[in-house]
């Protein structure tokens, strides 16, 4: 295995942070995972365990805090949207130059730079999903054709650090895409995921069976089309471009496709499990997204 000299901090040890820790440590990175609470205790006692042809343990260092003098080549911030500012405040005086924010957000990143320091933020979004069951990570990368790990500089330039990060992900066998405007990409992403999550929350006592509710699928299809059409009317170029297809599909056909997505293993791992574990985050994103549509 080729060894890479990169020192990486994964700030947040949930599903996303744990999976990227596994992938990056597997290609030889020196990976530290910062965890808190019960997850910290779990990792300290058992290590970072994951399923891959059996149960394996990732080669990572588990920590509960970092000092201002600790220096990493990359800090991956894998916390919920409402936790970002607190995490960035904790990293304000740290010497590391690059903080990769793998977070659902509608921020234009200025607030984050004001908190962490100008030039440190590299906006990104993970292409992954799954769960942690009995302390064991059961997660996968999203199929590249659907959603690779996405990132880009705030100013849209292809800088050296973007190129180096792409090489690192390639070594870790993580599919990626670099986009020129991460803010627009994230707005479009929320236009999709907010209605998808809402369907689960509005399904009553059996959200796992929402696919069998024809009316829910029809409502979700209409909301998706409305969101993307409104973004288009506001002059936002949909990103990625394949999302334009949603604008043109008839509601009955889109509802039928959604039914099969919700019923699939993909739907369970990448949609249902996240929606159920991130209800508060998704509720905040729902509020912020529809507020964004009204004022932009």
UniProtKB/TrEMBL annotation:
InterPro entries: KPR_N (IPR013332), NAD(P)-bd_dom_sf (IPR036291). It comes from the Bacteria. This is Ketopantoate reductase. It holds the Pfam family ApbA. It comes from Anaerocolumna xylanovorans DSM 12503. SUPFAM superfamilies: NAD(P)-binding Rossmann-fold domains. Residues 8-125 form the Ketopantoate reductase N-terminal domain.
């Amino acid at each position: 295995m080729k060894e890479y000299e990169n020192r990486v901090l994964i700030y947040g040890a949930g599903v996303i942070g744990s999976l990227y820790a596994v992938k990056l440590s597997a290609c030889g990175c020196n990976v530290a995972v910062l965890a808190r609470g019960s997850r910290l205790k779990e990792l300290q006692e058992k290590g970072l365990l994951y399923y891959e042809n059996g149960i394996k343990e990732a080669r990572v260092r588990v920590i509960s805090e970092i000092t201002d003098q600790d220096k990493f080549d990359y800090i991956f911030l894998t916390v919920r949207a409402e936790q970002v500012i607190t995490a960035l405040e904790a990293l304000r005086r740290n010497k590391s130059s690059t903080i990769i924010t793998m977070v659902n957000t509608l921020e234009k990143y200025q607030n984050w730079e004001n908190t962490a320091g100008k030039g440190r933020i590299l906006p990104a979004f993970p292409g992954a999903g799954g769960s942690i069951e009995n302390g064991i990570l059961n997660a996968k990368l999203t199929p590249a054709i659907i959603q690779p790990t996405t990132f880009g500089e705030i100013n849209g330039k292809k800088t050296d650090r973007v190129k180096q990060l792409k090489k690192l992900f390639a070594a870790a066998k993580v599919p990626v895409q670099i986009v020129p405007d991460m803010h627009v990409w994230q707005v479009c992403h929320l236009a999709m995921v907010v209605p998808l999550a809402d369907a689960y929350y509005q399904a009553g006592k059996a959200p796992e069976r929402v696919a069998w509710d024809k009316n829910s699928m029809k409502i979700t299809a209409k909301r998706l089309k409305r969101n993307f059409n409104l973004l288009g009317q506001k002059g936002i170029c949909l990103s990625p471009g394949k999302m334009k297809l949603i604008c043109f599909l008839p509601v009955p056909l889109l509802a039928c496709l959604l039914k099969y997505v919700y019923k699939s293993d993909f739907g369970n791992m990448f949609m249902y499990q996240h929606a159920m574990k991130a209800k508060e985050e998704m509720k905040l994103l729902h509020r912020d997204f529809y507020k964004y549509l009204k004022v932009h």
